[in-house]
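Private note to self, pasted from the team thread so I don't lose it. Backbone tokens:
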């Protein structure tokens, strides 16, 4: 019994080490959120068991929980680098698969067709607006900057306001609002499914996305020319790493001790 109890401890410590290593590896990843491992004990008994003599048989991983606290904001100066100063996620749609993704990494760029997208060609979603920036539909669409305006002037610049308005500037000096960035929130963000590249997908645990405008209600305003860094605290992770290593060593020592006891019993019988 003691072998399997300690073996469960070894496996749990290994999982904990993997989660901590993943956090440390992504300390420089924009929009990354730290994860932590939660454990639960395993106790087995029957209706006829004496509760005073119930013995545990180890532990198991109960959950790997993400921490969505705000990371430090770094100024970059790039017009399409956008950080959310508060709650919310950017909504993007994959140009290849059409899947909707959510992210805190606001590092965007523009392609030859005027679509604003991230490094994986996931297109930023915006609410359609009129020329004054008033939202005309609550159904998000892919942000696309026209390469010329109605007068035929060429596109020269793009800016993002705190309220989410995406402004396109043209050679004749005119400025047009092409949409307002749509933000998403979730009832249980810790239930979001990680898919890599600082992206998440909704799941049955997170609930569906609730869309809204930056700076309205629970949604934070936007900071153009800035990016949100990883929220991993490297000092905290190093302390956790040492603790996980000690847990691994302690369980390994318990297995070694059980082996020695078993060998002693065998020697007595022989």
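Design output:
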């Amino acid at each position: 019994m003691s072998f399997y109890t300690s073996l469960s401890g070894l496996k749990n410590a290994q999982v904990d080490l993997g989660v901590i290593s993943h956090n440390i590896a992504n300390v420089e990843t924009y929009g990354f959120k730290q994860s932590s491992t939660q454990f639960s004990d395993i106790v087995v008994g029957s209706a006829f068991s004496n509760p005073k003599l119930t013995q545990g048989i180890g532990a198991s991983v109960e959950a790997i929980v993400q921490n969505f606290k705000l990371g430090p904001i770094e100024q970059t100066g790039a017009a399409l680098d956008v950080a959310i100063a508060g709650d919310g996620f950017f909504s993007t749609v994959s140009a290849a698969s059409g899947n909707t993704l959510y992210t805190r990494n606001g590092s965007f760029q523009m392609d030859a067709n005027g679509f604003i997208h991230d490094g994986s060609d996931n297109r930023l979603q915006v609410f359609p607006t009129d020329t004054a920036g008033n939202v005309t539909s609550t159904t998000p669409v892919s942000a696309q900057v026209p390469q010329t305006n109605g007068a035929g002037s060429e596109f020269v610049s793009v800016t993002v306001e705190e309220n989410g308005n995406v402004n396109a500037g043209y050679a004749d000096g005119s400025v047009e609002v092409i949409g307002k960035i749509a933000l998403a929130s979730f009832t249980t963000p810790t239930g979001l499914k990680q898919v890599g590249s600082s992206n998440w997908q909704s799941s049955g645990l997170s609930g569906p996305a609730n869309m809204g405008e930056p700076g309205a209600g629970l949604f934070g305003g936007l900071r153009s020319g800035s990016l949100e860094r990883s929220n991993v605290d490297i000092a905290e992770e190093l302390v956790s790493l040492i603790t996980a290593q000690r847990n691994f060593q302690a369980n390994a020592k318990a297995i070694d001790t059980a082996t020695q006891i078993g060998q002693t019993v065998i020697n007595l019988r022989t």
